[in-house]
Design goal:
The protein has 306 residues and is α+β, with helices and mostly antiparallel strands. It has two domains: 147 residues, D-Maltodextrin-Binding Protein, domain 2 (3-Layer(aba) Sandwich); 146 residues, Periplasmic binding protein-like II (D-Maltodextrin-Binding Protein, domain 2, 3-Layer(aba) Sandwich), CATH 3.40.190.10. It contains ten helices and twelve strands. The strands form four sheets. Strands 1, 2, 3, 10 and 11 form a five-stranded antiparallel beta sheet that branches. A three-stranded antiparallel beta sheet has the order 7-4-8. The protein has a two-stranded parallel ribbon with strand order 5-6. The chain is globular. The chain starts with a helix and ends in a 5-residue tail after the last helix. The model has no long low-confidence stretch (mean pLDDT 94).
Length: 306
């Protein structure tokens, strides 16, 4: 998407050249922290909101209120306009459709703990993945009640660790294990990427969204503090988040839009089969607790041999 929309923007504004870099969200955050006094980038496009919240606390972002701000729920953006969600991400169970049928998959997240899935779960290394950190934090959050007590969620993740065959170092390793292994492994992943890998890249993947309310992950965009090309950054920000381009990304890249100014008739056909129940989340609390909860998972729950 970066190259595609950088080229499209350049065609519209040939006087502005966009250079894109595709990096894991955690690496982006680390690089922005290193370059804080002399930032080398202007726009941060995409990732998980927890890293954007961390960047906010360290003064790495600057406020910008986009033209479409009124089309977004309050919980889908930073209250001081430091970041806005362009998309939402839905967690799902992914599997090889040549081995399993959708109706065989766990109906709820708790069904992952059934004996039939013992040693059949493979998971992208959570500590290296913003997506998996968010999913794991959500699994704790959904059980924590109004006081966000993590202990029931920790117990669930401890049982899930028992079910897990391996933690894999990168997304490609996850795709290969699911697609090529005859063992019939299943995993937890984000729905957008499952659809893209199956419909565009030809992987034999299908999915099931477990029943019941679950936190929705946000995929934001922001302008970097001290951006050297501020006006150009604002123009690119507005270009890639325009309603027209958002709908194109929904059609071509299976993105689930965060904005509410899109009618059902404008949405692509693939979205008609997507059903999920969102759980209300205090985004600031969620993003802050993610660090504490994932540290506990690493130190007290995870089997280091996997």
């Amino acid at each position: 998407m970066i190259d595609e929309y950088a080229d499209a923007f350049h065609r519209e504004r040939p006087d502005i050249q966009v250079v894109g870099r595709f990096l894991p969200t955690g690496q982006i955050f680390s690089q922005l922290r290193i370059d804080k006094t002399a930032p080398k980038v202007d726009v941060w496009w995409g990732g998980t909101s927890a890293f954007f919240s961390l960047a906010k606390t360290e003064g790495l972002l600057q406020a910008y209120r986009p033209s479409w701000a009124g089309a977004l729920k309050a919980e889908y953006h930073d209250p001081t306009d430091l970041w806005y969600a362009q998309f939402v991400e839905v967690a799902a169970i992914v599997f090889n459709k040549n081995i399993h049928r959708r109706e065989e998959m766990p109906r709820t997240w708790d069904d992952l703990l059934l004996p039939k899935w013992r040693d059949k779960v493979v998971i992208r290394e959570p500590l290296e993945s913003g997506t998996m950190k968010t999913i794991f934090t959500s699994l704790i959050w959904r059980r924590g009640g109004p006081l966000h007590d993590p202990r029931p969620g920790y117990a669930f993740l401890r049982s899930l660790d028992t079910q897990t065959h391996a933690y894999l170092p990168n997304p490609q390793a996850l795709y290969d294990r699911l697609a090529k292994s005859p063992e019939g492994y299943i995993s937890l992943w984000n729905l957008t990427d499952i659809l893209f890998q199956s419909r565009v890249n030809g992987y034999p993947f299908d999915y099931r969204v477990p029943e019941g309310p679950f936190p929705i992950s946000l995929d934001p965009v922001a302008i970097v503090a001290g951006a050297a090309h501020l006006e150009e950054a604002r123009l690119f920000y507005e270009f890639v988040t325009s309603k027209e381009n958002c709908l194109k990304m929904a059609r071509d890249h299976f993105r689930i839009l965060a904005r509410s100014d899109v009618s059902p008739s404008e949405l692509p056909d693939w979205m008609k089969d997507i059903h999920f129940e969102s759980m209300p989340v205090d985004q600031d609390a969620f993003d802050k607790l993610q660090q504490e909860w994932m540290r506990h998972w690493r130190e007290a729950i995870r089997d280091p041999e996997k």
